[in-house]
C-alpha cells in the first residue's frame, strides 16, 4: 500500500475507534443518569433487593447481547437468539430431568444445541446466500417449534433433579459485606463478557469478525475463508445463547418452552445502545453490557413508577430507533 493509502486507512480506523469510544461513554453517562433519576423520584428503587432484581434481569439480557454482538459486528443479524435460548433451556431440562444426568451434561447439552442451531443459521446464510434477516427469522420459528415439541408444550421443572441446588433462584454468592448477596448469574455474565472481549480483541477469530463487518469482499480477496468464519460466528453466538438458556432456567427454576419471543429485541437494543454499529465492523462487549444495564434499569424503574407494560415496549422501540439514528450520525462525522 502507498503512504497515502496507509494514512487514509489509519485515519478511518482512528475515526471508528473514537466514535465507538464516544458512544460507549454516552451510554455510561445515560446509565448513571437513569440510576440517579429513578433513585430520587421512585420509592425503593435503590433498595438492595431491587438492585439484585436488576442484576438478575441484566444477566440474561447481557449474555444474549454478547451473543448478538459477535454477529452484528460481522455484518449480520440474529433474530433467533431468544427462541434459541428457550430451546437450549429445554434441552438442558430434558438432560437433567428425563435422563437424570448431572449438571455438567446439562450445560454441555445446552451449549451444544445452541451451537448447532447457530451453525445451521450461519450455513444457510453462507452457503445458500439467504439474507441473515430471513435465515434467522426462519430459525426463530424452527427453534420455537422444536422447544414446544420436545417439551410437550409443558414447563420442565428442576425441583427433583440432583442439580437443583445449583439451578435454584436462590443460588447466590455472598460478598464481604454481611447480608449482601449477588446471584450466581451475574458473575457468569461478567465471566462470559470478559472471555468474549478477549476473544474479540485478542484473537485471530476476532480480527476476522471485524474484517467481515468492515468489508466482506475485501476480506475474501485477502484470502479469508468468509463462509467458514461466518458459520463459526453464528455457531459461537448460538453456544452463548446456551449459557443464557441456563441462566433463564435458573432464574425461573424451570425450562419454559413458550418463552423467548421478544428477548431478541432487548438484546439487539442493548448491543446498539452500547455502540455496536448495525452496519458491522465496530463494537465492544463492554458497551453491550452497559446497554443491557440501561435496558434493565429503565424497565425496572418504569415498572416501579407504575407505567403499563405496553408503554415499556413502546419505549424500547423508541430507544432502538434513537440509538440507530445516533450511530448513523456519528458514522457520518467519523
Short description:
This protein has 334 residues and is mostly helical. The chain has helices spanning 3-41, 48-73, 81-98, 103-127, 132-151, 164-167, 184-202, 204-214, 216-221, 226-252, 263-273, 285-304, 309-333; strands at residues 156-157, 172-174, 181-183, 254-255.
Describe the 3D structure.
With 334 residues, the protein is an all-alpha fold. The protein has a single domain, classed as Orthogonal Bundle (ABC transporter involved in vitamin B12 uptake, BtuC). Helices cover 75% and strands 3% of the residues. The longest helix has 39 residues. The radius of gyration is 20 Å and the shape is globular.
Supply the CATH class.
Mainly Alpha
Tell me, briefly, the overall form.
globular
Domains (count): 1
User: What letter string, H or E per element, gives the SSE order?
Assistant: HHHHHEHEEHHHHEHHH
Gyration radius, in Å:
20 Å
Provide the CATH architecture.
Answer: Orthogonal Bundle
Query: How many strands appear in the DSSP assignment?
Result: 4
Strand order of the largest sheet: 1-4
Query: What does the average pLDDT come to?
Result: 86
- Unreliable residue runs: 1-15, 173-177
Name the structural class: mainly alpha
The largest sheet, given as strand count, sense and whether it forms a barrel, is: 2 strands, antiparallel
| Alpha carbon gap, first and last residue | 22 Å
What fraction of residues sit in β-strands? under 5%
Amino acid at each position: 500500500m502507498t503512504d497515502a493509502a496507509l494514512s487514509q486507512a489509519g485515519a478511518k480506523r482512528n475515526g471508528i475507534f473514537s466514535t465507538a469510544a464516544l458512544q460507549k461513554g454516552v451510554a455510561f453517562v445515560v446509565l448513571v443518569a437513569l440510576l440517579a433519576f429513578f433513585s430520587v423520584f421512585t420509592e425503593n428503587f435503590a433498595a438492595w433487593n431491587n438492585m439484585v432484581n436488576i442484576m438478575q434481569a441484566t444477566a440474561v439480557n447481557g449474555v444474549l447481547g454478547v451473543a448478538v454482538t459477535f454477529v452484528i459486528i460481522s455484518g449480520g443479524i440474529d433474530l433467533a437468539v431468544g427462541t434459541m435460548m428457550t430451546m437450549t433451556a429445554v434441552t438442558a431440562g430434558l438432560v437433567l430431568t428425563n435422563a437424570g444426568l448431572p449438571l455438567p451434561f446439562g450445560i454441555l447439552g445446552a451449549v451444544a444445541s445452541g451451537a448447532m442451531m447457530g451453525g445451521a443459521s450461519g450455513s444457510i446464510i453462507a452457503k445458500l446466500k439467504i439474507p441473515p434477516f430471513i435465515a434467522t427469522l426462519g430459525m426463530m420459528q424452527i427453534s420455537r417449534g422444536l422447544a414446544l415439541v420436545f417439551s410437550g408444550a409443558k414447563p420442565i421443572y428442576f425441583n427433583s433433579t440432583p442439580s437443583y441446588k445449583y439451578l435454584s433462584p436462590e443460588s447466590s454468592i455472598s460478598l464481604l459485606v454481611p447480608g449482601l448477596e449477588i446471584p450466581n448469574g451475574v458473575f457468569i455474565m461478567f465471566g462470559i463478557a470478559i472471555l468474549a472481549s478477549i476473544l474479540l480483541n485478542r484473537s485471530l477469530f476476532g480480527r476476522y469478525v471485524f474484517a467481515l463487518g468492515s468489508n466482506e469482499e475485501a476480506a475474501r480477496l485477502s484470502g479469508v475463508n468468509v463462509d467458514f468464519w461466518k458459520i463459526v460466528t453464528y455457531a459461537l453466538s448460538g453456544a452463548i445463547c446456551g449459557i443464557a438458556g441456563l441462566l433463564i432456567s435458573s432464574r425461573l427454576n424451570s425450562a419454559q418452552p413458550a418463552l423467548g419471543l421478544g428477548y431478541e429485541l432487548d438484546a439487539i437494543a442493548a448491543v446498539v445502545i452500547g455502540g455496536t454499529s448495525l452496519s458491522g465492523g465496530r463494537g465492544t462487549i463492554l458497551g453491550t453490557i452497559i446497554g443491557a444495564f440501561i435496558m434493565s434499569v429503565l424497565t425496572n424503574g418504569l415498572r416501579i413508577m407504575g407505567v403499563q407494560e405496553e408503554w415499556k415496549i413502546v419505549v424500547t422501540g423508541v430507544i432502538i430507533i434513537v440509538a440507530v439514528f445516533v450511530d448513523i450520525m456519528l458514522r457520518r462525522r467519523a
